[in-house]
Amino acid sequence: MDSFHHPEWTKDKNIYEVNLRQYTQEGTINAFSQHLPRLKSMGVDILWLMPIHPVGQKNRKGTLGSQYAARDYTALDPSLGSKADLKALVDQVHAMGMYLIIDWVANHTGWDHVWVEAHPEWYQRDNNGELFPYTYVDSQKTEYWTDVIGLNYENPVLWRGMKDAMAYWVTEFDIDGFRCDVAGLVPTPFWDYVTTELHKLKHLFMLAEWSAPDLHRQSFDMTYDWGFYELMGAIARGHKSAAEIPNYLDQLYTQYPQDAYRMVFTTNHDKNTWEAHDDEFFGDSFKAFAVLAATLYGMPLIYSGQESYLDKRLAFFEKDPIDWKNFQLEAFYRDLLLLKRENSALWNGTFGAKPIFQQTENPNVIHYIRENDNNKVEVVINLSKQTQRYKHQSTQAERALTPYQYVITKA
Q1: Where is the Glycosyl hydrolase family 13 catalytic domain (predicted)?
Q2: How far apart are CA 367 and CA 58, in angstroms?
């Protein structure tokens, strides 16, 4: 199989998730745009906007409803501003050397989406021919998405309709790609079809909210690595140790194409809202794990507010603005993102280098080197809450690291 054809510009990039609703008191595109110089200075490359479509009114949850219950795929939520505002934002992002992708929910819509009347045959129906709320089931849980209804991908005409809706945002606004919600609930052949068609307009960057390796075959540049997030949490809670990490990566290498991008994160909107904020999940270990996520492999994600230490769970269905405090982690993230950009060994997929793990004789200390061409980055991290001693493999010297201390060396 030929190598996946990533957009060349993605090779050294990071990604930043923008929760427009909660980003500012106004919750608008124009209010967010005031943060662009700050984000550019911090080193952010790709901006991912959470859904921008009007939110369904029927059966909505809470006051504001879910941004993932769209009412019209080719309209902009008026609470965010005008389409002229969005076009200006994309133009400004591009002028600053950054990129912008939007969230796309192809699996389901709000109950009052315009397609319900215009194309009723595009929806799943029960035995009585009635629409029904979508229920999500996986090996760990069942979720009742009562505010949305599922689309019927057995109808090939829907494929063309969805493709046309996605193409609208590429042709009219020059966006750079899509983050595709619950991508694995939609047939992979649809994604193969739609990405082939969309790439005829522009070579897009495609992110799947899913982890199935087959999505990398033709459709998606990047998938989520939920497993690594869970492993980091288990280490932070003392249930596992840093010694588990090399085995985890070895398993990934056998499952995924070598050129697959994996998204590595310390949180995202789902994890933050429904499970834990950064302080709950990591506590004092947060910076150590953020370094791990930014330097070990894959493309690092930063979620809105993490540069001000996101120690609250942002409400999903209500207005709940981020407390920006004093941006106390902004310089920390700036250094990490600059490190990635300036060191090709840390780049994404096969553009970078795999980590080579070094023996430390201490299961709590992770030591790895990423090296390609004339570039080398060495990282040592104590992923425990106690001071740890370890042996440096190349020098055989014994060294000590304080709780959650990390050391990064470039050569």
Answers
A1: 1-340
A2: 53
The DSSP line for 339-379 is: HHHH-GGGSSGGGS---EE---S-TTEEEEEEEETTEEEEE
Q: Is residue 343 in a domain?
A: yes
Q: What's residue 20's pLDDT?
A: 98
Question: What's the rounded Cα separation, in Å, for the pair 177 and 100?
Answer: 7
Q: Which two tokens stand for residue 260?
A: 């697959």
Mean pLDDT across 298-304? 98
Helices 156-173 & 188-198, crossing angle to 10 degrees?
40
Q: Residue 72 has which token pair?
A: 């019209």
- Specify the pTM: 0.97
Residue 194 scores a pLDDT above 50:
yes
Q: How far is the C-alpha of 326 from the C-alpha of 328, rounded, in Å?
A: 5
Instruction: From 271, 194, 239, select the one nearest 19 (Cα to Cα).
Output: 271
The structure tokens listed for 108 are: 């389901």
Q: Partners of 264 in the beta sheet?
A: 300
Which CATH number does the domain housing residue 225 bear?
3.20.20.80
Q: How many domains does the chain have?
A: 1
Contacts of 188 by beta carbon, 8 Å cutoff, 6+ apart? 212, 214, 215, 217, 219
Give phi and psi for 45, each to the nearest 5.
-110, -60
The residue segments making up the domain with residue 49 are 15-124+152-353
1 pLDDT higher than 50: no
Residue 398 counted as domain residue: no
336/343 Cα distance (integer angstroms): 11
Q: Nearest to residue 145, comparing CAs of 104, 189, 200, 105? A: 105
Residue 2 in this model has a pLDDT that exceeds 70: no
Is residue 250 situated within a structural domain? yes
The answer to whether position 408 is within a domain reads no
In sequence order, what are the residues at sequence separation of 6 or more whose Cβ sits closer than 8 angstroms to the Cβ of residue 211? 184, 223, 224, 225, 226, 227
